[in-house]
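Quick one, tokens below. Sequence please?
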């Protein structure tokens, strides 16, 4: 059971709730704080104080005072008018993450909603109702207005949701589970959609998958090192300690552990003096990729426990303050930075693929073909990898450097953080396919060299992957192999290496 307080949620708990469907509850202290916060809103309404978004219009309409009899309509109109997202919907995984993160933000007790509203989120999480939320339409400032409006529709019994493996009208799902839709009161519509939970949900799930993929890329790189009889001296830890980047040191340590005992790797001068950079510089490049991931992790850990609403209600001082915590710039920067790491992991992987298939760069069969000339082998797999890498380069352009004014120039600078997060996730999927292609080629290369000469750990990985994709004995439709192996990489989680008594490599 994960207990939401608004301040203590961890990335590991997000993973448990989103992927393992662990149940959620609301901390008792949070219930009390939310209630106190709500009472301040009601007191201020009773005293006829003017409060943005509570008894005024929104955005450019902030100077329009709303009559008391229209306050509930104001909130409902807000949700209806802002639910204009477009494009394919987010996955159920992302939708579930958005529910969790929005509930946690409201649990902090600064948003002026009733406890009942937060419990609606938790009920949806616990029964597995996930709103259908279009991916496109957010500027990433004033919050993820369009995506979060579609999330809010589901709380009202409107729109569509995923439930029990089916896409259906929300009312049908609520009827099946016995949950009543909620009716919004003053401030609550605005509290639902002012926030960064779309970009942050995409960011968190991309980070979690990216962490696993970088570990996997190291295993595959180690197998390529064996298939190309790479020089192990370049991974001597003295080199990496001399530079001092911790992530680089850790990658070099893991590669050494992965190829320990291998008869396929070589020593300096045995076959050549130096390897190409795509082999020799694996720790330097992937270490830097880990740095982008770690920076992203730091920002996400703050944001999943952040208050990103506007205005904020401070119950102890009985004050309502308008600010800009909804602006997504911190996450926009983090996701744009992460994109560089994702892109470079694919870039260097594709260069190793080229070295594995190009007969001018190795002594393996041309294009790893079982019958070169008559059969093309892995020739076009390298094309596909190159295409994915090139697409990543266009997606890597930073979204956060763009801004388009909105709401009659009241909202005159926006982050485009949700675009950055979406592109990072798309790049991750592209990179996973590149890694899958490298793995197909590396497995073929070590077979040619002799799998009995492999290191114990890479041999274990080889044998598992061979259950998914068989050896290339003749040309076939390799697209199916790539997709099966990509799915295997997506689902595979358990692979550990121990060093000096502690786990240093852990996909679990």
């Amino acid at each position: 059971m994960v207990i939401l307080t608004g301040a203590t949620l961890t990335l590991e708990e997000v993973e448990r709730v989103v992927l393992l469907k662990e149940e959620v509850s609301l901390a008792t202290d949070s219930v009390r704080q939310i209630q106190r916060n709500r009472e301040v809103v009601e007191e201020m309404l009773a005293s006829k104080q003017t409060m943005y978004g509570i008894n005024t219009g929104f955005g450019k309409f902030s100077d329009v005072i709303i009559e008391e009899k229209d306050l509930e309509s104001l909130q409902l109109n807000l949700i209806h008018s802002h639910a204009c997202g477009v494009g394919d919907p987010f996955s159920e995984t992302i939708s579930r993450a958005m529910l969790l993160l929005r509930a946690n933000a409201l649990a902090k007790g600064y948003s002026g909603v009733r406890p009942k509203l937060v419990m609606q989120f938790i009920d949806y999480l616990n029964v597995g109702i996930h709103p259908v939320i279009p991916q496109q339409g957010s500027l990433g400032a004033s919050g993820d207005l369009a995506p979060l409006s579609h999330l809010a529709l589901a709380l009202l019994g409107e729109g569509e949701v995923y439930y029990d493996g089916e896409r259906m009208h929300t009312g049908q799902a609520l009827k099946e589970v016995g949950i009543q839709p909620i009716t919004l009161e003053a401030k609550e519509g605005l509290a639902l959609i002012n926030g960064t939970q779309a970009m942050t949900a995409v960011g968190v799930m991309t980070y979690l998958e990216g962490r696993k993929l970088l570990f996997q890329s190291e295993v595959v790189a180690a197998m390529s090192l064996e298939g190309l009889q790479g020089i192990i001296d370049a991974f001597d830890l003295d080199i990496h300690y001399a530079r001092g980047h911790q992530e680089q040191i850790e990658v070099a340590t893991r590669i050494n552990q992965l190829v320990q005992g291998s008869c396929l790797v070589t020593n300096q001068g045995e076959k050549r003096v130096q390897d190409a950079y795509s082999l020799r510089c694996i720790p330097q490049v992937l270490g830097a990729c880990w740095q982008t991931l770690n920076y992203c992790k730091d920002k996400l850990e703050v944001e999943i426990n952040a208050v990103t609403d506007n205005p904020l209600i401070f119950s102890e001082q009985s004050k309502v303050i308008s600010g800009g915590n909804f602006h997504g710039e911190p996450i926009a920067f983090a996701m744009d930075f992460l994109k560089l790491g994702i892109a470079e992991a694919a870039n260097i992987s594709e260069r190793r693929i080229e070295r594995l298939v190009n007969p001018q760069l190795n002594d393996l069969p041309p294009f790893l073909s079982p019958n070169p000339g008559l059969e093309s082998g892995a020739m076009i797999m390298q094309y596909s990898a190159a295409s994915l890498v090139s697409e990543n380069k266009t997606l890597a352009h930073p979204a956060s450097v763009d801004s388009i004014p909105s709401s009659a120039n009241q909202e005159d600078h926006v982050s485009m953080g949700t675009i950055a997060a979406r592109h990072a996730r798309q790049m991750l999927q592209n990179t996973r396919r590149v890694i899958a292609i490298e793995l197909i080629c590396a497995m073929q290369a070590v077979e040619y060299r002799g799998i009995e000469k492999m290191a114990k750990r890479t041999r274990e990985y080889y044998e598992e992957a061979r259950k998914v994709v068989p050896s290339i004995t003749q040309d076939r439709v390799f697209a199916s192999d790539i997709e099966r192996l990509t799915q295997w990489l997506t689902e595979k989680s358990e692979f550990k290496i121990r060093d000096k008594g502690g786990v240093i490599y852990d996909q679990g």
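The chain has 18 helices and eleven strands. The domain at 210-305+338-404+414-497 is CATH 1.20.200.10 (Fumarase C; Chain A, domain 2).
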